[in-house]
């Protein structure tokens, strides 16, 4: 890839996460700037879902592009050991820094002297800023925000291209509870940003990955505070999670409340899911979930 852009002063980078927004951004920018050469980067943590790899392969073949895969210097297992088994969390998010941000900065060292444009797929209907690399020669560009591209537009772009949504969005139907659920983001299969119903999804759809996530829980550290995964899968807890999810979804349909706290209280949403709801409003970054 480097040899193709040696004679250029500018480097245009799109980080591909395996999620819908970064895929739509790649399609959108290739169409908008057909003459522009982009470097597509995927930071592979080695802890991704199979659906993520398939989606990136599909994106490559449909767009006729090559996505450069980059790996962190150390595996998650090694990093966890260095952190004395202290699992990452929304407030102690060492995983993104060690596995993605540092990998990104390492790649950027190859392009010293370039003006780098780092394109990020945060949409116009989102209210967050994302991570911004602290280097003078890297400019963050938000094309979807500049052009007013919303979630509906992203879905249209993906449908029109034939790529569609990642397969983890395909809902699982549970007739007994009359609910449908799915995984809502890309990133590591054990990502602590998952809601409890998404952990249930992982348990049902990817039992081997769920088991691996369980094995990372040691010394009293758990992915969900006060609920190790060995407890989450007890039938009575799965029952509670599915019922709580059903209540929340019904409330959302009936009365899309502006006040999230009221919604949380009325649905008896778990503390874990409440915390994620609050955190999601402004602190999610773009390196993992777009
Ligand atoms: S996807 Fe989640 S667990 Fe993986 S690096 Fe990103 S924030 Fe951490």
TrEMBL record:
InterPro entries: PAPS_reduct_dom, Rossmann-like_a/b/a_fold, Sulfate_adenylyltrnsfr_sub2. Pfam families: PAPS_reduct (PF01507). It comes from the Bacteria. GO terms for molecular function: catalytic activity. Gene3D superfamilies: HUPs (3.40.50.620). It comes from Arcobacter cloacae. The lineage of its organism: Bacteria, Pseudomonadati, Campylobacterota, Epsilonproteobacteria, Campylobacterales. This is Uncharacterized protein.
